[in-house]
Design goal:
Bound molecules: 4'-deoxy-4'-aminopyridoxal-5'-phosphate
Structural class: alpha/beta
Distance between the termini: 34 Å
CATH architecture of the largest domain: 3-Layer(aba) Sandwich
CATH superfamily of the largest domain: Type I PLP-dependent aspartate aminotransferase-like (Major domain)
Mean pLDDT: 97
């Protein structure tokens, strides 16, 4: 068996510790005589998997008591609609930082007044626009941001001002890669398939007092209250994905030592790659330095044929999914939590060799 280094932006690599544990428990999980995939979501075994998963997330992220954790389906994309359906009363302010806010804007516009108060579209989303309190609309209910932009490789290093407004943030591609002060946000959501587990479950962390104010007559499954009132089991939840998230959280706690340690690792991985890219004569990263993501690192050679050759030869060397998003081109290395330092070292070694051969 040869495992590759998988730099996919999501679904992404998972820790081997987690995959092995899942394999061990495949036929008989929690002494139930069956796999988690075969379990009733109403069983005491599954209830304990869900409870433990929530407890671990609370501990790891230090989630205050006045927040609720909800397990939804429909990906990050469904949150683009659920957020306005539940929180938009007058209007929403959104900062446009690329594809994933554009899609959120599109859904918001169907449901209420939406102000795009800043955008980095003028420079192909290579920076995070800075706003001041004055940029916020007088009647907006919340400011919506995408904290880490998976495609363009930008990240907010500080939260934008939002006095008097709720803050809603899409953390799909940076959750659990660093410490997060949850109390600074009113709603956080993240699809699991990058840093938390497999696809199929989306975690929503929401201030309890924001639940129960959805627009009238919306479908039950689009109302956060339905999830809160039923412990995220109004209908069958994505049981196996929740179980896998639980294992990833267990790995983070027991094997890594929590988010302090993971933050150090994440910064280390990113610094290694950026330092090399910045010192290289062949590769460049288009993002404004202060706004660079720690988890998604795009780079180009400046020659599309050479980029293609790079992706092909990297794959042959066991470094896969390095092709950039179709809207950006070039390459992108996603360095999520499960990417070992050895994977980053192997990538840099390959890049050096390729540079020597092709410059
Ligand atoms: N937000 C961000 C930041 C993303 O990277 C993605 C997916 N790559 C999404 C939202 C959409 O997530 P999903 O595919 O789970 O709907």
């Amino acid at each position: 068996m040869t495992r590759v280094y998988n730099f996919s932006a999501g679904p992404a690599c998972l820790p081997e510790w987690v995959l092995k544990k899942a394999a061990e428990e495949m036929l008989d999980a929690h002494e139930s005589g069956m796999s988690v995939m075969e379990m009733s979501h109403r069983s005491s075994e599954f209830q304990s998997i869900l409870d433990t998963c929530k407890e671990r997330l609370c501990r790891l992220m230090n989630i205050p008591e006045d927040y609720e954790i909800l397990f939804c389906q429909g990906g990050g994309t469904m949150q683009f609609s659920m957020v306005p359906l539940n929180l938009l009363k007058h209007s929403a302010d959104i900062i446009n930082t690329g594809q994933w806010t554009k899609k959120a804007i599109m859904e918001h516009e169907k449901l209420g007044t939406t102000h795009v108060i800043a955008s980095s579209a003028d420079a192909n989303f290579t920076y995070i626009p800075k706003i001041t309190q004055n940029d916020l609309s007088p009647d907006s209910d919340y400011l919506y941001i995408c904290e880490n932009n998976t495609i363009y490789g930008t990240k907010y290093k500080e939260l934008p001002p939002h006095e008097g407004k709720l803050l809603v943030a899409d953390l799909s591609s940076c959750i659990l890669s660093e410490k997060t002060d949850v109390s600074k946000y009113d709603l956080i959501f993240a699809g699991a398939q990058k840093n938390m587990g497999p696809a199929g479950v989306t975690i929503v962390i929401i201030k309890k007092d924001l639940i129960g104010h959805a627009k009238e007559n919306i479908p039950s499954l689009l109302d956060y209250k339905t999830y809160a009132d039923n412990d995220s089991m109004y209908n069958t939840p994505p049981c196996y994905s929740i179980y896998m998230v639980g294992l990833v959280l267990e790995w983070l706690e027991k094997e890594i030592g929590g988010l302090d340690e993971m933050e150090k690792l994440s910064r280390k991985r990113a610094k290694m790659l950026y330092d090399y890219i910045d010192s290289s004569k062949l590769y460049s990263n288009p993002v404004v330095k202060e706004d660079r993501s720690y988890t998604n690192i795009p780079f180009v050679t400046g020659n599309t044929d050479l980029d293609k050759k790079f992706v092909k030869e990297a794959k042959e060397a066991g470094l896969v999914n390095l092709k950039g998003h179709r809207t950006v081109g070039g390459m992108r290395a996603s360095l999520y939590n499960a990417m070992p330092i050895e994977g980053v070292e192997a990538l840099i070694e390959f890049m050096k060799k390729f540079e020597k051969e092709n410059l």
